[in-house]
Amino acid sequence: MEVLSGSNIFSNNPEKEYATMVSLEHRQRFAQFFTPYPIAKFMANWITSNPNCQTILDPALGLGVFVRAILEDADKRYYIKGYETDSLILDKAKSIIDNQEIQLLNKDYMFNDWGNKYDGIIANPPYLKFHDYSDKNEILKEFHSRLGLVLTGFTNLYTLFLLKSIHQLNEGGRAAYLIPSEFLNSDYGKNVKKYLIKDKSLRKVIIFDFKENVFDDALTTASIFLFENNNKQNAAVEFITIKTIDELYQLKTIPAEDNENLGQK
């Protein structure tokens, strides 16, 4: 697979350049907090290590760091779809990524794509307060209709992205999400946690205990959630902690906990 030629696109250089072009106010409005490239690469490897992976979704594209990470070492063709609400950053992403198998859409994932399934879903979703959405009631009704979930306006937007993506995984499909883990112990997260326990696709939660500053401020408490939809019954969730990015490839494992104890640490 090909992307536009350019130096260091398989790094965070595009994000650094973009940050000098737009105001902090603009980035905050669209909750643009970027994923360190080594973490994006690790998450991409989880998706593409599935030998049956052909279709991939990034519901919160940004500058396409996950797409770039997937394409860097790709030895097969993938059909990739990305959603992005900010037309400015989407245009920049399109100037970096040029591939006929990649569809980049200037649309809100919350209002689109319910009917499709994917082999891989990967995201660093927006960290926004959902109650600011003008059509939040319509979205909540959709979640209740399709997932049987009763959620409130206090639900964080990133958990809605997560729940919808889990619903869209093909059998055998994998998902990787970079999100805060606090929702597991929050009041609004109770129904979300129940859904995760019932769904049984959550495999690993990788918790960062970094001393160095490798994240934007909004991502300081982020964790990687890895899912696999293989219908495995009563699968334990493995909680893992790492102190450096290098340890992503030599993971330090905490004893796995039962799904019923999810978040009770």
Describe this structure in words.
The chain starts with 12 loop residues before the first helix and ends in a 12-residue tail after the last strand. The protein has a nine-stranded mixed β-sheet with strand order 3-2-1-4-5-7-6-8-9, with helices on both faces. It has one domain: 3-Layer(aba) Sandwich (Rossmann fold). Helix 3 crosses helix 4. The radius of gyration is 17 Å and the shape is globular. With 265 residues, it is an alpha/beta fold. The longest helix is centred in the first third of the chain and has 12 residues. It is built from eight helices and nine strands.
Main attributes?
disordered N terminus; 265 residues; single chain; globular; 29% helix; alpha/beta; 9-stranded mixed beta sheet; Rossmann fold; 9 strands
